[in-house]
Inverse folding.
DNA sequence: CGCGGGGTTGAGCGCCATCAATTGGAGTGG
DNA sequence: CCACTCCAATTGATGGCGCTCAACCCCGCG
């Protein structure tokens, strides 16, 4: 998942299209905190998240970390580069994944419907990453956090009364490493939104969006 | 082009593989400053840069700009999202482009060799963008500029005496919008490298890398 | 020679990182 | 049920990197 307002989240379509075929393998599970794969691993299958959440990360030698993306149900993860994984993939919660043999996807020898869905997923991935560039390169801390919460609400929010509620499966540090900020800044910014009554918190991981319009305005216009 | 040290730049392979087939259309030209395509345009063909350079950009409503990538000879540009272009593409110099019908690439009905090359190009694009995330999100201004110059030298540098020389086809503002900085910061950082004799300048657009090792060290380790 | 646009350099400040202390909440054992 | 532990999250204080605003330089061009 990338922070993209116009995300129609079509990977779900991939999952729905293909679960009826015989091309997929048996679902796998990973417990919270476990690796699904690591950078450098040979890629023989790629995955569609069925339930739970994962994070894709890259590390610098000195310990700095960048979270490339979060994977939520419907997302495809594990696109290879030169036949190898290019990020680590860790489970944020207990997670269920649907594996697909990569070789058949790559060279088109398998199910053509599956193959086309794979190509479409890769193209959507590119477009979503392009949008994420704008956020990393050109948005302020408040804009980043607001964009993140807005996207999460659209993608994973559940109606509660008149509002939408989000259950964040990742830590503040994860959010920070995704947005190119520090945990302190993320925490401060979320506190600010709470004080302004844009959101409400029940514990650190449950967010209720009280004023989606205000959140949207902050996500796009604010520069401070 | 993204700033990736380990970039083996295999898109050249695509170009070489496919120029002998009959699948490609007649090359097109665009003069410096002209648009090759615009965000929102319907995608019926995608392009491989033959000569010259282009920039791929996205804009925010308030005028902030992010350059998604530069396209140099061998690079494939124009990956669509939902059938439409997702960035603007402008010529930085007079540029020659080799167009390919996208429909045949997408659904695999055309040349299978071409199709596989297209899928590989998309996967490389994803991997390169992942690396670029780390730079946008986690590197300091000096690291960014040093990484940029290093990559440009590897990609486009020509041996001059014992050194490698780069001809930058983009302005300082373009570099800034690519790295998520301002023109002033880019200019100051380049001046700093010149003062430290890591590089030399002949005019604003010709750079000679005097100490590649120092440049590499700054690109990866420095945090100030 | 005047003009204009890109590039460079300077001064000052603000956003966000850094360092540090405190709070809170989940899990554990008595 | 409470005390204790541990780590995530919050909050505070301070400083610095990079942005902002502004002046100046350089150079191509009419």
């Amino acid at each position: 998942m990338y922070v993209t307002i116009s995300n129609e989240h079509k990977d779900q379509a991939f999952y729905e299209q293909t679960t009826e075929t015989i091309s997929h393998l048996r679902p796998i599970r990973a417990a919270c905190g476990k690796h699904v794969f690591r950078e450098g691993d040979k890629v023989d299958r790629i995955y569609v998240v069925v339930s739970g959440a994962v994070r894709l990360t890259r590390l610098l030698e000195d310990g700095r970390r960048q979270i490339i993306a979060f994977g939520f149900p419907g997302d495809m993860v594990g696109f290879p580069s030169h036949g190898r994984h290019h990020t680590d993939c860790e489970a944020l919660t207990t997670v269920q994944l649907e594996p697909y043999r990569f070789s058949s996807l790559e060279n088109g020898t398998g199910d053509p419907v599956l193959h086309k869905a794979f190509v479409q997923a890769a193209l959507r991935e590119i477009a979503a990453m392009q949008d994420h560039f704008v956020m990393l390169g050109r948005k302020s801390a408040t804009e980043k956090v607001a964009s993140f919460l807005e996207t999460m609400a659209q993608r994973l929010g559940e109606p509660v009364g008149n509002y939408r509620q989000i259950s964040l499966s990742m830590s503040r540090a994860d959010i920070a490493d995704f947005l190119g900020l520090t945990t302190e800044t993320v925490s401060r910014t979320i506190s600010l939104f709470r004080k302004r009554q844009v959101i409400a918190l029940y514990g650190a991981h449950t967010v209720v969006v009280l004023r989606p319009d205000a959140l949207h305005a902050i996500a796009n216009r604010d520069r401070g």
